Amino acid sequence: MLTNQDFTWDRSQFLGGSDIGAILGFSKYRTPLQVWMEKTGKSKPFRGSLATRFGHFNEAFVASEYAQATGQILHKYPGAIIHPEYPYFQAHIDRLILDPKQNINEDENSCAAIFKNASGILECKTANPFAKAEWGEPGSDQVPLPYLCQCLWYLLITKLPKADLAVLFGNSDFAIYSINRDIELEALIVQKAEYFWSQYVLKDLPPPTQTEDDCLTLFNKSTPKQAKEANDEVVQDIHKLIELNAQIKESEQQVSTLKQAVMNYLQEADTLTFEDQILVTWKATNAAKRFDTKGFAAVHPELYEQFLVTGQSTRRFVLKGGEIHA
């Protein structure tokens, strides 16, 4: 049976809806390694950004628009909904969708009754209107994969049949999408989530890296003068890197030559047009003011030394030139 617990919001103790998309590799903003760092206490938990705070601020408005558009009754369910078999699977949903015909007293003691009579869940989102191409037709389940994973995660925990996703694009366009429960997908998600928790979080072993930033995070220190012999696979990767770097340099040179041609055509003009359409601007920027560190150090050497702060060292990846003989 699902339970509702009053507990301190500690994201390191559970996997939530915003984690599952990253664990599955579908998030543009978080990798499995970053989730692992958070769950094992190796990084500070995510406290939100301007975008997430804006979305939370607009949650009530989006829910109100959904209720007005559909005639559904909504209930803000308190606390966490916990999976009966996997207690570290938790859902913090925006709203429960109730049958308008039901007459339920929404006091603190009626949470179980409200949940029992719910027909689905509602997730409220705000989205950049320029990202609308990532969304399908309203009414479909064609939503960005992280949101789809989040809704499927909540459905597998609540066992409810559907999740509606209401989204406000900018401040002018409102749409509703619907995701039905999929038992086969749920089984796959459970398998991936359980593996991530048991093999990586509980064993304190990092998942495979997915980005350069992951490598910098995981391997942030180097051992001086320690060399490692490359295997055949790494040698081939180095060959490809050298080839790609050469292609990039050639492309950069072509870009520079083309920009030079346009600049020579513009000369002192700051705007290039064609049939009333602006093609290029080449305008002077405001002169930036900067602190003269060397000058200050020369005049006030003791004060300069007093305020010197040693930063954290980072590793620099350098691809050496020359041919590689495999």
Task: Give a structural overview.
- It is a single chain.
- This protein is of the alpha+beta class and 326 residues long.
- It folds into two domains: 3-216, Lambda Exonuclease, Chain A (Alpha-Beta Complex), CATH 3.90.320; 232-306, no CATH class.
- 40% of the residues lie in helices and 15% in strands.
- It has ten helices and ten strands.
- It has helices spanning 17-23, 32-39, 50-70, 111-116, 145-158, 183-201, 212-218, 232-266, 293-299, 301-306, and strands spanning 3-5, 73-75, 80-82, 90-91, 95-98, 118-127, 162-169, 173-180, 271-274, 277-281.
- Strand 6, helix 5 and strand 7 form a beta-alpha-beta unit.
- The chain is extended and about 75 Å long.
- The termini are far apart.
- 21% of the residues are buried.
- The model is unreliable at 1-8 (pLDDT under 50).
Order of helices and strands: EHHHEEEEHEHEEHHHEEHH
Number of strand segments? 10
**Major beta sheet, specifics?**
5 strands, mixed
Kindly name the structural category.
alpha+beta
Summarize the amount of helix as a percent range.
25-40%
Compute the CA-based radius of gyration.
27 Å
Strand content: 15-25%
Query: How many structural domains in the coordinates?
Result: 2
Quaternary state, please? Answer: single chain
First and last CA, distance: 61 Å
